[in-house]
């Protein structure tokens, strides 16, 4: 099992962070098997593209809410890590309050 669960959507409240605000969160290591995806569909063109992160953040975006870690952005990067036999990746983790 690569991920904890395959989700389809974001169950947590809207956080409203911009790309610039995400960039202020320092990356930390996250185990792939603790992540719940927010997308159930994968685009193979994005997965196999050599420059898929050229215009975006190098680190996946994860939202921690109610004790779970949701992979909001970076599914393709996480899968590439798994294909290279890695069990952890560096991601920016936003911690949301449980209420809300």
Structure description:
The protein is an alpha/beta fold. The protein has a single domain (5-9, 26-95), classed as Conserved hypothetical protein from pyrococcus furiosus pfu- 392566-001, ParB domain. The chain has three helices and six strands; from the N terminus they run E-H-E-E-H-E-E-H-E. It has a six-stranded mixed β-sheet. A hairpin with a 2-residue loop joins strand 4 and strand 5. The N and C termini lie far apart (30 Å). The mean pLDDT is 89.
Sheet with the most strands, sense and barrel status:
6 strands, mixed
Q: What is the third-level CATH name, the topology?
A: Conserved hypothetical protein from pyrococcus furiosus pfu- 392566-001, ParB domain
The proportion of residues in beta strands is 25-35%
Helicity, as a percent range = 10-25%
Number of domains: 1
Q: List SSEs in N-to-C order.
A: EHEEHEEHE
- Radius of gyration from the CA trace? 13 Å
Instruction: Return the structural class.
Output: alpha/beta
Total number of beta strands: 6
Principal-axes shape call: globular
* The CATH class: Alpha Beta
* Average pLDDT score: 89
> Which residue ranges are poorly predicted, with pLDDT under 50 across at least 5 consecutive positions?
none
Q: In the CATH classification, which architecture applies?
A: Alpha-Beta Complex
What's the tally of helices? Answer: 3
Strand arrangement across the biggest beta sheet? 1-3-5-4-6-2
What separation lies between the terminal Cα atoms?
A: 30 Å
What is the CATH homologous superfamily assignment? Answer: Conserved hypothetical protein from pyrococcus furiosus pfu- 392566-001, ParB domain
């Amino acid at each position: 099992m690569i991920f904890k669960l395959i989700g389809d959507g974001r169950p947590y409240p809207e956080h409203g962070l911009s790309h610039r605000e995400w960039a202020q969160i320092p990356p930390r290591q996250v185990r792939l098997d603790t992540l719940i995806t927010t997308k159930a569909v994968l685009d193979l063109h994005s997965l196999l593209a050599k420059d898929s992160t050229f215009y975006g953040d190098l680190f996946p975006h994860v939202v921690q809410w109610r004790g779970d870690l949701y992979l909001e952005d970076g599914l393709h990067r996480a899968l590439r890590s798994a294909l290279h036999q890695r069990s952890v990746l560096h991601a920016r983790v936003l911690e949301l309050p449980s209420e809300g």
